[in-house]
Request: fold
Amino acid sequence: MSSSDNTTKSSNEAADDSIIAANIASVKSHILETLQECNRSPDSVRLVAVSKTKPVEMLMEAYHAGQRHFGENYAQELIQKAEDMPSDIKWHFIGPLQSNKAGPLVKSLGLKKLVCVETVSTIKLALKLNHAAGVWLEQQQQQQQQQQQQKEEGQQQEGGDIVVLGENEKKLGIYIQVNTSGEETKSGVSNEKECVDLAKEIAASCPNLRIDGLMTIGAPGDFSCFDLLVECRKSVAEVLSVNVDSLELSMGMSGDYVEAIQRGATSVRVGSTIFGARDYSSKK
Reply:
């Protein structure tokens, strides 16, 4: 490759870098403007950059632009990216998760990196995640005890670094996904009653999970889907005896995140507006 080709490649990469950073800045600006219009706190909405099918290089550009919350749809892709990227990234799993993938996902990332599985809509998946989180926590405790014993005996410590967990990181955060549009192509519990029943069952049988909120995709252009999620949150908060504002509302994507914020979203999932159109050619 000639020097002129190298120069062109570097220029193109720099241009791509600046585009991703500029896109993030633009999205954050729209979020802030919408929050101001709604008289809401400027830090009351989280931006999750949806990075499925995107290469690590593009995610790193977002990272260097200050982005820390990323959303992925495929378990294996998330596991690989988490290995290749900085440890302070907060990963959200936002795609359909087969119950047999719950264990490997939690085991690989742990509860410090995997901050939320946003797509829980069955007790079967919740129980699998609960078990996986319990196994991971027990392994961390055993490793910590072993290293403490080695330290007291003056031995060289083995087993790698201990993951120090904050009080809020000793359970796996989840959202209950609600199919607010009623579309057969969308996942989630079907109605408010199913949402409440699932929340009660998870609270009663999954001590290693923490219900952090609700999530929906909704139908394009039908903003009533967001209103339905708001109503579900009220009912879930009542049955769990928690403040309604303590439960997140994950709703709104590239085409409708502004409208979602206007209706109460606390977390928006934005992908193509930041990274561009996705390539699914390598996905089954």
Notes: Confidence is low (pLDDT under 50) at residues 1-15. The two ends are 35 Å apart (CA to CA). The first strand starts at residue 46 and ends at 50.
